[in-house]
Amino acid sequence: MIINIVAGGPAGLLPDLAEYREEGAIWIGVDRGVYYLLKRDIKPLIAFGDFDSVSQEELTLIEGHVGELKRYKPEKNETDMELAFNWALGQNPSIVRLFGATGGRLDHLFANVQLLYNPLKEKKSAAIYLIDRHNTVFLKEPGTYTIKNNPAEKYISFVPLTLNVTNLTLEGFKFPLKNRHISLGSTLCISNELISDYGTFSFSEGILIVIRSND
Q: d(Cα 197, Cα 23) in Å, to the nearest integer?
């Protein structure tokens, strides 16, 4: 099962959502993200939010086209995105993609990146991606991974989420590494590039944020 969640970040940062319309994929709208979906002729299965970022006219459109609308008061303990994300994880999906989760307010951006940690903490097997027009972000636990060259995402950066990431090794990259210790706050692994069709990265401790990006 693939679940695509669209939140209400700046519309200009959304990628072409038509590229992610696989057969059987479930779409979830979050607050103004519901409106973004409807304007692209994508009907969400379910919607979450306090809907304080839409006009009354837009809310009327949403209410008329979404079968299950979970509406909350603005004063709550979770963000609208977290509520939608938790629901998605409860469906035991294979892939969850988050769109409309970057740009605008930095507090929401940092919160959304940290949400990616929850499936690891809860030992969920789903692959989670945060995607906008210029970036794809995901987390990795210790292990060895193969990564494919993609000219549309030229740069690959590795940023520690934990205090330390140990024995980081990069092979097939323009700037290779061998068993390097990377601490929180290091910019050593920003803007690397693959020099062949595939590369590998591995590490033995910590959690890495992997960011594939373009200009």
A: 28
